[in-house]
Amino acid sequence: MHELLARAMQGVDPDAPGAFWHVFLNLWAMVPWGALFWWNLLFVAVGALLGWWRGRLWEGIAWAWVLGPIGWIVLWLRPRGGARTVPPPLPR
User: Fold this and answer.
1) If we measure between CA atoms, which residue out of 39, 53, 85 comes closest to residue 75?
2) pTM, rounded to two decimals
3) Is residue 6 predicted with pLDDT exceeding 90?
4) Calpha distance 88→31 (Å, rounded)
5) Which chain regions cross the lipid bilayer (predicted)?
């Protein structure tokens, strides 16, 4: 924990007016953005596959984009999106 705090406070004067933003940007610089991008792409691809299989392609992509693997569970628990039933015509 001390190492993380030291990396976040690197080059920051705690009494400076913009110290919060400097620490904030230092923390964001430590995030592994490349790995997060590829993992998210994998989640969306699996969500698209599950959505296609369940008859809800775009819904599968959306749920996987927003929730990742939890979106797969949401998609799995929703009913299949097959052919919509048409009600019988009204009598004349």
Assistant:
1) 53
2) 0.68
3) no
4) 57
5) 30-53, 60-77
